[in-house]
């Protein structure tokens, strides 16, 4: 089948937009390979020599970085798993179970999407301070487990799954939990991957709550720790080091996205991975 002129133009436009979107990322990566002394003179000669890995070496020279990476991995990983579990259970309940006040409760969950984060920072800070959970993994993870978007996403995905599959399992004497865990949940893998990458990205890049909850350097996440190492003149005298920090912090997210890319595309397209 010959490709129509419209399809070719559309493909060319998509490629052009992709290249345009990638240019800032390439610019950041190129700056990270330049010495700060060179960048103080000019920032336009990105493809010319010399290149250096000194900025990355300076990041790794700080022994606390490895602790910060560990903290970020623990916080983002555990938070993502718990968000997936809670959102899946809540989404299945809203999609398949009938109970009094169901519409009201679902509306309240969706109303959480409209609540700005700064509006709840002070109550959360006082609550976790009274519980003595600041400077702990629990204090960094628990406030982010409420995920209205995740509940909404999983509810809509469960509604799209034919009820006949569950009815067949229930007729074979499978319990509701077995039906959910072995029959229905595996079918939601594209939605799980999409929600997982969004949750991990939000947790990995979170700065406001760790800034409030983690006051000890050993409990810093990577985002907070790298920000703490920046000087007052980082954007002028340490631009290469600043860009290297951005690349270093973004690498785990890029790897995770590349690994789950086909599931995310399938979820957006409404198909199966």
TrEMBL record:
Chief site of localization: membrane
Domain called ABC transmembrane type-1: residue spans: 69-260
Nucleotidyltransferase as UniProt keyword: no
Coiled-coil regions listed in the entry: none
Compartments in which it is found: Cell membrane
Cell membrane is among the record's keywords: yes
Membrane topology of this protein: Multi-pass membrane protein
TM ranges: 68-92, 104-125, 137-158, 179-204, 239-260
Top-rank taxon, per record: Bacteria
UniProt cross-references to InterPro entries, sorted A to Z: MetI-like, MetI-like_sf
Pfam families on file: BPD_transp_1
Keyword line: Cell membrane, Membrane, Transmembrane, Transmembrane helix, Transport
PROSITE patterns: ABC_TM1
Record-linked PANTHER family: ABC TRANSPORTER PERMEASE PROTEIN MG189-RELATED, ABC TRANSPORTER PERMEASE PROTEIN MG189-RELATED-RELATED
Sequence similarity: Belongs to the binding-protein-dependent transport system permease family.
Protein name: Carbohydrate ABC transporter permease
């Amino acid at each position: 089948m010959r490709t129509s002129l419209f399809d070719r133009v559309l493909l060319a436009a998509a490629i052009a937009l992709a290249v345009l979107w990638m240019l800032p990322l390439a610019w950041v990566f190129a700056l990270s390979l330049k010495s700060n002394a060179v960048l103080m003179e000019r920032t336009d000669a990105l493809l010319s020599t010399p290149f250096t890995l000194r900025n990355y070496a300076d990041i790794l020279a700080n022994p606390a970085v490895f602790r910060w990476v560990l903290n970020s991995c623990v916080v983002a990983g555990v938070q993502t798993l718990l968000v997936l579990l809670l959102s899946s259970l809540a989404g299945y309940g809203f999609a398949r179970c009938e109970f009094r006040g169901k519409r009201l409760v679902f509306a309240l969950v969706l109303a959480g999407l409209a609540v700005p984060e700064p509006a709840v920072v002070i109550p959360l800070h006082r609550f976790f301070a009274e519980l003595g959970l600041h400077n702990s993994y629990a204090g960094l993870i628990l406030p982010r487990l409420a995920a209205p978007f995740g509940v909404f996403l999983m509810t809509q995905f469960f509604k799209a799954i034919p009820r006949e599959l569950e009815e067949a399992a229930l007729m074979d004497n499978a319990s509701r939990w077995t039906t959910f865990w072995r029959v229905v949940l595996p079918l939601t893998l594209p939605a799980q991957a999409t929600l997982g990458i969004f949750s991990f990205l939000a947790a990995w890049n979170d700065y406001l709550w760790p800034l409030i909850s983690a006051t000890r350097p050993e409990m810093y996440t990577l985002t907070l720790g790298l920000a703490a190492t920046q000087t007052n003149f980082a954007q002028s005298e340490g631009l290469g080091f600043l860009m290297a920090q951005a690349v270093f912090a973004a690498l785990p997210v890029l790897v995770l996205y590349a690994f789950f890319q086909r599931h995310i595309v399938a979820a957006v397209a409404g198909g199966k991975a």
